[in-house]
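A.,

Following up on our hallway conversation. Structure tokens first:
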């Protein structure tokens, strides 16, 4: 499981997208024989066809929208008079003297940011939803990340997605940082387990159990 091999795996999946819908196989799975692959596919044929139909003509796009930290803090404090008052009370006092007050203020700001993020993420998702066949939201990795999501988009709507994100960013210059990644195979929207049989290796060096899943 080297970076080189993982990139080759991803490149193969992206190349296949040029030939039709793709259900990406998880990297590093080992199939014992071609016959067992064929058997596993045959057993799940209906489910595979249904999954393929669900992603046909589509690709996955990853969208990350984050606040600029200073602007987010300014907005939270401005919108909450009690926080503004608490900040003003700390002015001119030493760090040692206000240690516990600062900890408490930090917790309150964190809570206010969380509430603000939930509210704004819902509004952003509502704006993105008309362009997406499906949306899979992910847990933000930072307190200033407003929205982190994977979108299943018809390829003919990709330009509209880019235009909408540019519009959102332009509405308040310097307030948001937006990152768009794609097109990619539909990793977040294809989930199906294929078993090679009880005696088959499930991973290199392992035995037994389901050996692969389309992820």
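Then the amino acids I'd put at each of the 215 positions:
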């Amino acid at each position: 499981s080297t970076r080189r091999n993982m990139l080759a795996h991803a490149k193969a999946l992206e190349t296949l997208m040029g030939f039709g819908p793709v259900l990406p196989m998880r990297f590093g799975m080992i199939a014992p024989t071609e016959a067992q692959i064929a058997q596993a596919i045959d057993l799940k044929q209906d489910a595979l066809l249904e999954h393929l139909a669900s992603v046909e003509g589509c690709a996955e796009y990853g969208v990350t929208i984050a606040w600029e930290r200073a602007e987010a803090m300014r907005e939270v404090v401005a919108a909450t008079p009690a926080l503004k008052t608490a900040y003003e009370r700390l002015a001119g006092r030493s760090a040692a003297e206000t240690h516990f007050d600062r900890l408490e203020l930090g917790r309150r700001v964190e809570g206010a940011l969380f509430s603000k993020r939930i509210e704004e993420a819902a509004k952003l998702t509502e704006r993105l939803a008309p362009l997406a066949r499906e949306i899979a939201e992910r847990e933000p990795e930072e307190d200033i990340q407003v929205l982190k999501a994977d979108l299943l988009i018809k390829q003919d709507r990709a330009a509209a997605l880019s235009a909408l994100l540019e519009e959102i960013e332009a509405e308040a210059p310097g307030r948001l940082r937006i990152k768009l990644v794609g097109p990619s195979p539909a990793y977040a929207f294809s989930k199906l387990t294929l078993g090679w049989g009880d005696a088959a290796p499930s991973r290199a060096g392992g035995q037994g159990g389901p050996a692969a899943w389309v992820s």
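The chain has a mean pLDDT of 81. Curious whether your intuition agrees with the design.

B.
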